[in-house]
What we know:
DNA-binding transcription factor activity (chains A, B), homodimer, transcription (chains A, B), Peripla_BP_I (chains A, B), DNA-binding (chains A, B), LacI family transcriptional regulator (chains A, B), four-stranded parallel beta sheet
Amino acid sequence: MTAATVSRALSDxxxxxxxxxxxxxxxxxxxxxxxxxxxxxxxxGKTHVIGVLIPTAENAFFGSVIHGITNLASKxxxxxLIHECDELYELEVKGIQxxxxxxxxxxxxxxxxxxxxxDHFLDVKRxxxxxxFFDRVPDLDIPSVVIDGFNGSFWATQxxxxxxxxxxxxxxxPLYINTFxxxxxxxxxxxxxxxxxxxxxxxxxxxxSIESGMEGxxxxxxxxxxxxxxxxxxxxxxxxxxxxxxISKIHxxxxxxxxxxxxxxxxxxxxxxxxxMDQQTVLMGQEAFKLLNQIIENGNEDNSSKIVVKPLPVIRxxxxxxxx
Amino acid sequence: MTAATVSRALSDxxxxxxxxxxxxxxxxxxxxxxxxxxxxxxxxGKTHVIGVLIPTAENAFFGSVIHGITNLASKxxxxxLIHECDELYELEVKGIQxxxxxxxxxxxxxxxxxxxxxDHFLDVKRxxxxxxFFDRVPDLDIPSVVIDGFNGSFWATQxxxxxxxxxxxxxxxPLYINTFxxxxxxxxxxxxxxxxxxxxxxxxxxxxSIESGMEGxxxxxxxxxxxxxxxxxxxxxxxxxxxxxxISKIHxxxxxxxxxxxxxxxxxxxxxxxxxMDQQTVLMGQEAFKLLNQIIENGNEDNSSKIVVKPLPVIRxxxxxxxx
Lengths: 324, 324
């Protein structure tokens, strides 16, 4: 059956047989196709559905950002549909196609780990579907919401210095990812601002895991001049540091300071509890929706819009040398 | 503009003016409405999209189940759209409407905390859209995937008995929720199977939180005959128990045993690490998709289908009295 036949059958065209019309109509009904739905969309021009593309559902960070988006979007009369990509480029492309198929009014997205080709996002732009990125952002001229990793890391490093730690090391995430490069630079800048010379031996390149936190700590402790504090690029790494220090019988925070980044769910429950930077995930989700909503409402957009969310320090036991 | 006019314009009906046709067609194009999409759906009868309704995105449990669903669904050529309800009945209804609007081929759902009215799900059934529930399941004749809380709790309690703990208490979740009632009954049955008389003073009614774990522990310790172990209905409660025992300077596991339920992300990182039952969340998601896919493929369904996922014990430090 051709598209033309379907169209005619749906509009009761006299040249189409009653049988064909019945088949098409039943199928159309099953698919919940209704002409008045199009008529309604014609009046408002909108479906009141937005799509949110996330790299993985197995990470509390994205769950919390979604919570922020859904929360504000529902107050504005929008339904939110989420698509998880399992960190795979193929599923990311499929997610975008599904959103287009569902005729979403706009898309909020965060990149999967290995996405290097942005054609699917450029297709969204060509269709004039409003698009906003958050956290993991491509090098494209598209509005986005990110965390201020540089200043957050500067703050954390300064705090360790203020607490009296003398040799502060850093276990980074992969430095080719902007997010982690920013945190490394914030650490470096804080040392410089305090006239502490940067020692590249004190930087261990980790991979966002408990294991790399443990491995990095073992390596740093084996140096001729070991550090007495570590600023970790994120909380799983910091958790690994705490675990290794416990094994090495080094007391935190008396002998050694540890500072993380993310305020992951577990960080307040470690022993000692972990000082870290809160990423304000719910706020990030709300800001992403606000930005998208502005674009939907105003029709046009300022592609250079970049909202920078300020991370908030959460000082717990692992960095408080002075009170001990 | 009426639905009839839109239908006619789309099918190039001679009575509709060129201007109206142009408006409708442009709008239809903007909405990505295409007659051949309907024709294509007519041929396959499917959109290859399924909807997943979750109570909240701020809980690692649901993120992990989604991961299981998406993983298997994508292998079967399905896209998965997720809708978070923020534990609100209103958003649950809206989510279902959005899924119907997106013409999903099937829906997998878990109930929000206060959902008592199931009309929106009955509407899904009336439309013959395949529907499967997981974890939080209504009292309806609809296929579902649940965890075997009774036997998991029996196992945990038996383990505490085997380790030599003598008075085993239980801090429950809200007992009007089936999930938590099952766990309470499993605890009770294990005591009975070991000829240990059930003492209602040893059951504290909690509310799935760290605070209620702490409060319950304080209460139980204040009894004339306090317990020397607690089986908690879930891991946040167990975490609260560990925190309170630390404050009360009671050593775990030497003096006191603690067992949780869920294997929440943080449970391996507490001090001491928490023994718990793993809910096999990814498997639960996969089973839910398999069940849904069977219904989609076979057209009919056995409404009594109930898949029961077996929880797996994860023995860590908090319950191992014997090795100490």
